[in-house]
Amino acid sequence: MFRPAGPADASTIAFHRYPEGIDAAERPVYAAWVADALERGVYLGFLAVGAAGEVVAGAGLTLLEWGPTRGDPQPWRGRIVNVWTEPGFRRRGLAREGVTRCLEAARERGVTRLSLGTTDAGRALYRELGFRTSGTEMVRRA
């Protein structure tokens, strides 16, 4: 039911990233980035396909070249992104399987540090998969 994402799936992944109509203008730029990132191997996506061949869920792993840090010689970090399930297919374990595939892909590459953003609805799932809340992250936009 799940398959790896390829560059041809970039528009679908962009929809998962920006499902709300208000954000539709963001989709083409993100789709172009995803297609390139998939080709470069720094984005790994996994898509669940329904009986009619339609994509019904997905999850992605963005690999970030972070550099070695104190206590961790691994230069890569991972960020779980674009976890999304078609409303009619929710509560069937598809998000869990997609994220699990991302975790396995990270493990295969030796990536030991992962992060993600979440909604209240997803928080319990991510806790079950070993993620913990971290209150130390700060951001700045120029």
TrEMBL record:
It holds the Pfam family Acetyltransf_1. Keywords: Acyltransferase, Transferase. CDD domains: NAT_SF. PROSITE patterns: GNAT. InterPro entries: Acyl_CoA_acyltransferase, Bact_Acetyltransf, GNAT_dom. Residues 1-142 form the N-acetyltransferase domain. This is GNAT family N-acetyltransferase. It comes from Deinococcus rhizophilus.
